[in-house]
Amino acid sequence: MVSLYFGALFLTGAFTLLPGRRMHDVLFGAAAGWTPAAIAIPLALISGMTIWWRLLPKRRRVVA
To answer: How far apart, in whole angstroms, are the C-alpha atoms of residue 45 and residue 64?
Structure first.
């Protein structure tokens, strides 16, 4: 459940930065176009996945 929660936060946060959205205009300016979003969205997703991966508990392998 925790991974679902954080995954939803990162995904919706990435879609917030799409051109035409209010936060895109706040962060990059109204006339910025797709270039800043094309850079910021993958960086946000990669950093979010990295943080999520590091916060996961390490699973022990059971050798049978």
So the answer is: 37
